[in-house]
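User: Reviewer 2 asked us to show a designed sequence for the structure in our supplementary figure. I'm pasting the structure tokens here. Could you produce the per-position amino acids so we can include them in the response letter?
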């Protein structure tokens, strides 16, 4: 396995039926002793120790001994531990990604990355230990990465972890805990749900799986209880998340739920680890990918916006130390796994890793975001909207003239969000180094008010890597954009 490296201290814990029994845990020449205390576990008692802060990579042998006997963990490395969670796009395995056979064979070159996959088990109440483990901690190899479709190992988690390892140069531990089709509510704590006024039934009764029917538990907290809460004693470095499609039916609720989940996870892991896991540990997520090839608006654009708490970018004042991978331009309409499951998880992992360098690790001068508008101005005489990106600091590449729209109406009181009929295409007419001109008069007519500007506001806004705006230096796409207000 990989345990969290210094300056944080890794926690080790276990169980014993003998209350008061002395347990001695030895790492190299560092013995640490504790006693077994009563715990809310079926195994009687529980013990826990904090290891010294370790910055050497290892490998180490960790020994736990008592009058009952001795247990050893072999080949333990120290590095950064990341949890990967979400629904089916996180569950999609390396075996299902682009160039699967080549990627699986390449895994043999990364023995200092260690992985674990948690079995999909739900519980109506908190459990102290994982009910089941699909793949125990394993050295990365073609066997541990190239498991059966949908079982192990997550492609997004793997490509992210491999990026980190290449750039950090020390071991990486990856814990994969996901459930395809799951909404966000089952992954949340009681306190996190209460923040958004979501009430949990008492008693909480789970629906029983129907034989032969795809089962996804949708009751609140039931995946947190059994697939995440048993991990909170661990010292971790951070987490990544790919989820949201199931919650697209209610983006306004997600705008509250997602930041609340991040906050509650951080608090619970911080407390569970005795303060070793950072109270605002870095949290990365994937802004959901396209779905159908149709030009429908659907609910995905609003969900993508809600994933950023309505800012359009992260980090922001609501989502501190949060980073994201934009995936709206990674359409894969021929995916054998359904169009909502693009095979290109390599770019998802790369974009997450690049953002983690800056946000999670504080590497200076890393350009980790696509271009984002800082100035929007309207010239009603010429019918031109001028958008400048990143205060002129980011040279842009225009790959398509389409994707922008303006909300234009003779009625200044029109509510743009609720009336898509008022949104008209505003194609790119001119490009400069860090700005563009949009033209709207042809589609809006004369004597209209401009009440909003939006970009990529479609379920599937463009073919693969052919949205309108990219950063010239790193080929990152501009994220979706929405600005409402009176312009002219």
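Assistant: Here is a per-position design you can include in the supplement:
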């Amino acid at each position: 396995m990989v345990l969290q490296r210094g300056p944080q201290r890794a926690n080790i814990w276990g169980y014993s039926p003998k209350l008061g029994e002395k347990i001695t845990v030895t790492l190299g020449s560092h013995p640490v002793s504790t006693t077994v205390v009563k715990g809310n576990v079926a195994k009687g008692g529980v013990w826990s120790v904090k290891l010294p802060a370790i910055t050497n990579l290892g490998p180490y042998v960790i020994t736990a001994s008592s009058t009952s006997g001795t247990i050893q963990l072999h080949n333990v490395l120290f590095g950064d531990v990341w949890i990967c969670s979400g629904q089916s796009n996180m569950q999609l395995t390396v075996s299902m990604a682009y160039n699967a056979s080549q990627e699986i064979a390449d895994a043999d070159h990364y023995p200092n990355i260690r992985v674990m996959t948690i079995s999909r088990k739900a519980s109506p109440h908190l459990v102290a230990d994982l009910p089941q483990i699909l793949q125990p901690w394993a050295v990365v190899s073609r066997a541990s990465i190239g498991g059966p479709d949908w079982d192990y190992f997550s492609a997004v988690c793997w490509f992210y972890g491999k990026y980190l390892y290449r750039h950090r140069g020390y071991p990486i531990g990856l814990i994969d805990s996901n459930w395809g089709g799951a909404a966000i509510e089952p992954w949340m704590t009681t306190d996190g749900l209460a923040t958004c006024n979501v009430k949990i039934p008492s008693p909480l009764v789970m629906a029983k799986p129907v034989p032969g029917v795809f089962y996804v538990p949708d009751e609140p907290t039931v995946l947190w209880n059994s697939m995440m809460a048993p991990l909170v004693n661990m010292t971790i470095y951070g987490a990544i998340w790919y989820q949201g499609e199931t919650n697209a039916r209610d983006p306004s609720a997600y705008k509250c739920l997602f930041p609340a989940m991040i906050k509650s996870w951080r608090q619970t892991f911080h407390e569970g680890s005795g303060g070793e896991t950072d109270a605002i540990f870095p949290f990365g997520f994937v802004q959901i990918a396209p779905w159908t090839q149709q030009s429908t608006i659907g609910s995905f654009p609003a969900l993508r916006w809600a994933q950023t708490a309505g800012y359009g970018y992260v980090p922001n004042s609501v989502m501190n130390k949060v980073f994201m991978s934009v995936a709206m331009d990674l359409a894969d309409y021929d995916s054998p796994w359904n169009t909502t499951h693009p095979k290109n998880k390599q770019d998802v992992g790369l974009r997450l890793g690049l953002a983690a360098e800056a946000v999670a690790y504080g590497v200076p001068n890393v350009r980790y975001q696509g271009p984002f508008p800082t100035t929007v101005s309207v010239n009603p005489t010429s019918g031109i909207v001028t958008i400048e990106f990143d205060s002129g600091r980011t040279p842009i590449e225009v790959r398509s003239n389409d994707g922008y729209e303006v909300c234009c109406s003779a009625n200044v009181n029109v509510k743009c969000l609720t009336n898509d009929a008022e949104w008209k295409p505003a194609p790119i007419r001119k490009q400069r180094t860090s700005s563009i001109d949009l033209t709207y008069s042809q589609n809006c007519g004369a004597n209209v008010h401009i009440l909003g500007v939006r970009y990529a506001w479609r379920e599937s806004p463009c073919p693969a890597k052919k949205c309108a705006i990219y950063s010239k230096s790193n080929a990152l796409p501009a994220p979706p954009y929405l600005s409402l207000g009176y312009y002219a």
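For the response letter, you might also mention the following. The domain at 2-76 is CATH 2.60.40 (Immunoglobulin-like). The radius of gyration is 24 Å.
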